[in-house]
Amino acid sequence: MNYRAIGLAMIALLTGSAAAADGHDATLKEGRDADLTTARCSICHSTDYIPMNSVFLKQAGWDAEVHKMIKVMGAPIPEDEAQKIIAYLTQYYGVAQ
Questions:
Q1: Residues with Cβ < 8 Å from 53, sequence gap 6 or more?
Q2: Which terminus of the chain faces fewer neighbouring Cβ atoms within 10 Å, N or C?
Q3: Could you tell me which residues come within 8 angstroms of residue 67 by beta carbon, excluding any fewer than 6 positions away?
Q4: Which residue pairs, CB below 8 angstroms and at least 24 apart, start in 28-32?
Q5: Residue 17: what pLDDT?
Q6: CATH fold of 3-93, please?
Q7: Where are the domains of the chain?
């Protein structure tokens, strides 16, 4: 059993839930699949992480992040939705290619 991954998931869940409960969740930029991105990402953590990471990530980085959340952290996101989320994050929060 990967206790590190479980521990990180629990921390993300607890800190994300606390941020959302306090009303500190970031409102994402309007655009196609913004609601999907908010719904799926906020299952485990605050959407504040998206703009915080946007200064670093290009399309490949967002792809890696989304798939890490699925494969390592166990996010329940089907692949077709993952591709939509990656496209949204790249368009609205990606570093210029």
A1: 65, 93
A2: N
A3: 82
A4: 28/92, 29/92, 29/93, 31/88, 31/91, 31/92, 32/88
A5: 45
A6: Cytochrome Bc1 Complex; Chain D, domain 2 (1.10.760)
A7: 3-93
Q: How far apart are CA 62 and CA 52, in angstroms?
A: 13
- Express each pLDDT in 20-69 by its tens digit: 444 557 899 999 999 999 999 999 999 999 998 888 899 999 999 999 99
Phi, psi of 60 (to 5 degrees): -65, -35
DSSP code at position 95? P
If 0-12 CB within 10 Å is exposed, 13-18 middle and 19+ buried, where does residue 80 land? exposed
Cα separation, 88 vs 40, whole angstroms: 13
